[in-house]
Fold each of these.
Amino acid sequence: MRVEELRVAVDGGEIDTVVLALVDMQGRLQGKRFHAPYFLAEVLQHGSEGCNYLLAVDVEMNTVGGYEMSSWERGYGDFAMVPDLATLRRVPWQPGTAMLLADLAWLDGSGEVVASPRQILRRQLDRLRGHGLTAYAGTELEFVLYRDSYEDAWRRGYRELTPANLYNVDYSLLGTARVEPLLRRIRTEMAGAGLTPESAKGECNLGQHEIAFRYTDALTCADNHVVYKNGAKEIAAQEGMAITFMAKPNEREGNSCHIHFSLRATDGSSAMLGDGDGDGDGAARLSGTGRRVLAGLLATMCDFSLLFAPNVNSYKRYQPGSFAPTALRWGTDNRTCALRLVGHGQGMRVENRVPGADVNPYLAIAALVAGAVHGIEAELDLEPEFTGNAYADASAARMPATLRDALVHWENSVTAGSAFGPEVVAHYANHARVELAAFDAAVTDWELRRGFERL
């Protein structure tokens, strides 16, 4: 949607509200709803402001210590929300509404807000462009759908909820037909918001589904991801249902967010494809750049795991035999590996199977780009591809087992420091410490069941 179209729609009474949204550390949309004529008269040219605590709170919006950029000592001031007009779109599930995303800058003109997820991804893409390359990505978000409203789920303490499907509906057309009205509404209304839906399918967990969207350039992919995730929750709520994107909502299969990733040269051709047609096996399919990219992704996976798996719950997903990778190997169409080489010809790409659906897409894609740049600049050699069951490979490097382990890798990583800078490393390290402190202080249902009477 162009600004001229927005003006016409506002003048014609079609649009009365404009949402200006920023993306927080958790990958959520925060922001303001503006009266559309006011937005056109004032915000479009001058932007708006938001409290800088939006990048310095926990998931429950509690103010917490340890952040250099935002604190009680600094007075919790504002930063500027600068509209990105390229993200302007209609919001079909909210009548009369348009939306656009904001980049963040300091009000004193000192520059961008370094810890902003959208700015973090932009900087990594700039580094990649220095090598004459452009990143493309597509995210596959799984979710579990419940027939309870969010309010009912809250009141029940998220216990004894009713999944939308009562058995495994992986690829089942009969099973997914039970919830097709909601899935169809999400697909069609996301298309109305400028996304390109590809398909919907059932998954293994009870009530679990996935809606896939067409790949695009990396920044647009991340933008589409957060619009979809927020919008899917809003649409489900309107239907009296609830969607969760938790990485591991119960003891069954977790919710993944596989990220398909590729690089293109300045002429638009694949920079990762070898001299053949991409139909061979193993490293022969890859160009020299492609081999270095995969080597860089493998070499940085542990160091950057905090960006791929940002929450305590994220690490519950990594279970052998669960299709969530534990072994840091790469293979051709091998779902037991962390990196799976898929596609043919110009569509050849690597699928990173590490992130869960709780991931912040800007940070995860930024980590992929930074890993690729590391592999290119360090001229890393790619290990042989893995065939067979990578879960059983005792010699393979492993994902960190917990958020605490991931934090150690992140803070001690020379590569993370050089790629993202000390401010970003410190900011997201503090985010992890805040989550760990909250978890360490909690008493879980598991502890109560085991110990209330019997200990």
Amino acid sequence: MNPYERRSILLFSALYTGGILLLYSLVGFWYYQKETRRINAEERVALSLYESRCARLTKLDPTGKPCAIETPDFSASKALLRRELTIASLITLVLGGALSVALALAVLRPIRRNYRMMDAFIHAMIHDLGTPISAARINIDALADTALSPQQLKRVGRITRALQRLSALQDQMRLALVRSEAAYSDSEFDLCVLLHELREFSELIDCTCKHALTIRADRTMIERMIENLPSNAVKYNRDNRRITLRLEEHTLIIQDHGIGIRRPDRVFERYYREASSMSGMGLGLGIVQMICRHYNLPLHLESRLREGTTVRIDFRPITLHYSSLKEPHA
């Protein structure tokens, strides 16, 4: 069960149990008031009878001794009423909580089945994509060794870039399903160098490093994590505005001026897409969050509709060394 399913079950259980307790409280309050009024009425009748009987006994006994009849006491009845209501409240709470969890699981069952089908579909796609990609690469390499005209070389280049995009999609789908710690192989590298390599992803990306930052992590994972952020920014960009990547001390800042995000709280969910018309499977930002959690990197996202989005990632937990650059790389 993933965190989103647990959160949904907890929220549904809290709302359902809270609703039952609220209804029970109203009914219980009405019942308590009614029973209290009944007991008070019986107490008044009993006290009235007690006073009249004591008055008659006093007239018959001229010695003036106190009334020998026991004073009526209804405190035990009131205590019993409160105890019964308390026990009923606890039973209602336990049964309501159990019923809410059972209902939440029943409601989530088809959703969880769809998620499992989606995961199985992605696993099959990852496996099936490998064969045609490998065959296409072998044939492209064979073509590269032959004499080709400039126009043919241009076409081969386009095919090569298309294969690279297919390989990137395959890696992204595989990474989205990674659950094993063995998938990470850490090494030391300069994050600033990696950022400038990613700048080639789009002509709209500007990259600035104020510091040289050496970190220890899986370079492929960090590259995949960072690459997903500007790729999303390019996808939802407007008017070909610039997208900036800035490395300031330990913090990487990715800023765009795109359409913004309506639900920033949901963008890291797997398969979530705000615009169904856009390409993609809703996996990219989930990968970003997964890798940040693995390395305990603080991740902060701010977004405003029609203004843009800013993402900050703090690399201090995996920083080995950083130093100021005489001339910031741009």
Amino acid sequence: MNSVLKSLPKVELHRHLVGSIRLQTILDLAQEYKFPLPVSTLGELKPRVTISPNSGKNLGFILREMAKFTQLCFPSRAAISRIAFEMIEDAFLDGLIYLEVRFSPVYMTAQGNLSQVDVIEAVLEGLNQANRYFPVQCGVIVGINREMGKKVAKESADLALAYAGKGGVVGFDLAGDEAAAPPREFENIFIPLRADGRLGITIHAGEGAGARSVEDAINYLGAQRIGHGVRAVEDPDVLDLIQRQNITLETCPTSNVITGAVQSFATHPLRFFLEKGISATINSDDPTWFNTTLTNEYSNAIDKMNISLQDLAKAAQNAALGSFLPLEERLALADKIAPMYTTA
């Protein structure tokens, strides 16, 4: 079945560039740029960067410790371009035809060598180079981590607007610890984004906090998509809001289990969302950190979450239609993948 699932054309809406770096690339960059790593082999590195479902690590650990470790990997534009290029190659090998990748330019400037503009340009360069070899269309979502504060968020939002429609920049994301910094605290940041209308808005919510966080992301920030959103299941009124406004949920099953957003694959609400007619999708979140691929997420959906191939097709269609592409391109993408699932 895995070979069949791998061959299916896939669309992914929720993948972080920082969590997609190949392990070998981390070692290569450490050697090339002489930044310190506490390990020197792949065998030693993997348990430091990859989390298993039984690790006992929580969302806070991932946000604070693992992200800090991979933050060393952006010392130059060339390094960033390489990471973006390799992510597209990996996506192609996994059967993706469309991917939306997100990253925080501020986060990737931590070493002080690059500006936010350098980061965005380097990512776009890497994606452009990859497209010469791999037929994977990629949309870019500029993001900000809540922990960096509203001033930095405003700077990143302004930069995202400056790049809207250029090189595939299609959206803006608010990530980070939603419990510590609820959506409504960032309402003013999103007013110009909503007024401009060129960028799609996706908000991490309903992962580290409950259904109210999802509701506030929609009502205060104008979210069209919700990153994760699994805890929306806790409130029927929030589920009704999601349906009424046709909000797309970017669920990430392996990530959701590991971070404790859900207790297990068996209790994950993806099947419930799909049966209720909610636009839920399947995503890998951070493939390196969670040791997964989108094919693996499809396999888990079938084997561990009782998702049928028909429901899998519905999730894939939801991803195509929920992308931040123009309407005609969304419809064309959905039409392109639909027949492949009915014949699988």
Amino acid sequence: MHNPSEISAEPCVAIRLGRLGDALLATGVLEHWRRTGNLGFAFVVKAELAEIFRGHPAVTRIIAVDKADLQGAAWLRFCRRLAGENRGRTLVDLHGNLRSRILAACWSGPTRRYPKFGLERRILQRFHVPALARKLDALSTPQRYAMALDATPPDPQNVAPLLVLDDAELARADEFLSEADGAGPFVALHPYAAHANKAWPEEHWRSLARMLIERGLRPVVIGRDPAPLRIEGALDLTSRTGLRQTAAVLARCRALVTGDSGPMHLARAVSTPVTALFGPTVRAWGFFPDGPEDAVLERDLACRPCSLHGARPCPRNRQCLADIAPSEALRSVLAVLGEPPPEGS
């Protein structure tokens, strides 16, 4: 393994394509390397996620990749151009897929890559080996990323996601939230999922919102979806806020309840406690909130995990999620707020 202090403080080039959560989980690792090794990074990311890194103290340059450049020969041309512009610099591969390996093949300087545990994850998905689950549970994705340069994984709190908001973004969030009724603390709800099998039942979301309102709390629905989930009494910001504005809204909320999703990591990046509802996916994949007040609610079923990303159809009508009661999520939120649990719990 490599020690960061042995690398030049000149900007390295790091790459993580993928989805929102993938990029967000890299942000804390970059800051960790800046603090411990005085390193700066040019960061290669999909164009639609580039704004995540705006204002990041460890990112000296954002290299935004358009969709057209991700395809076939266009990607090879992009890799050759990027490699030519950064001769001698260290490439830190936080993706480990075919595209990033093509970039590494074009690279003229040192290349470092993190342990992805891809084979282990697939074995766990297929055979559900408890010992393998325990091994994978021991390291979050940010800790795994860090091992591209670190000899040992850092404390998870030292690589927590980081998104830097400005005063104008926070003020705009206050404007959105001023539309809500009541005067209690805000609790964000993210009821949407990229795959239907990762979604908590709609009636559970409505029940949770009623419970929150009864406790004097103000639910705020966030996220993007062409078919908004109408929740009576909640402030509905569905599809009204962009990525950074959603982060600012989350920063003004006392807690977030969500499935295994990008906003889960967005909340972690602005230090908002998360209650995460895990169904077809599991903590062993490495994508989970691990802040001091975060909680993962899940069921120990023999069929879990059934999917790497939650896309596989479920023959059991999403029992893994349906069995998580709204009262459990409420109890988790109340614990964050320092309020007594619901009666009878």
